[in-house]
Specification:
The chain has 9 helices and 11 strands. By secondary structure, it is α/β, with parallel strands linked by helices.
Length: about 230
Amino acid sequence: MAGEPIVLVVEDEPAQREVLAYNLRAEGVSVVTAASGDEALIVVQETLPDLIVLDWMLPEVSGIEICRQLKSGAATSKIPIIMLSARSEDTDKVRGLETGADDYITKPYSVAELLARVRTQLRRVRPSSVGERMEYEDIVVDLAEHRVYRGGDLVSLGPTEFRLLTAFMERPGRVWAREQLLDRVWGRDIYVDSRTVDVHVGRLRKALKVAQAGDPIRTVRGAGYALG
């Protein structure tokens, strides 16, 4: 879809590459992929993505070398790079960042955390594409400040409830099945019981009941939940 930010995922493990691509697309991001460093360099020249998620351990040419090449190129030096690595030592993290990576995530990682890091980087380079502010009736979500207001009053939310509300705000009126919310908020590679969704929806409802405001979240029997 036109206007969507483009993210390049460079990962040689097919299953992991597909998990990342699926979850990024669920965030409304256009995804291109590469299985090697050489392929990544070709894709970058053809597509010029807004962000690159780059695995350190790649066949033949390492992610570190790809990062170094991209950051030294005039046309690619400003593209944010999030480095993924099984290397957890501080020296490795420092090496990755000194090579030019804008962020560094150690494997195994939470897909939800990675998506949050992606959103942070995209807000920096493409603020209009990800949106700084979401509104529905008297509810306002300020993505830049990570704050929620209802009727002008500040609402205190935990990180999961914040992600849950953001999903609802993106598609007001849409009925979300529990499994869809699990994929969207927690990530497909994390096992969470579907009843957990009910618990967090309950917490979100309680938090949003400020002053005399009613419950904005509708339960659709046998189907799931919807905002409005």
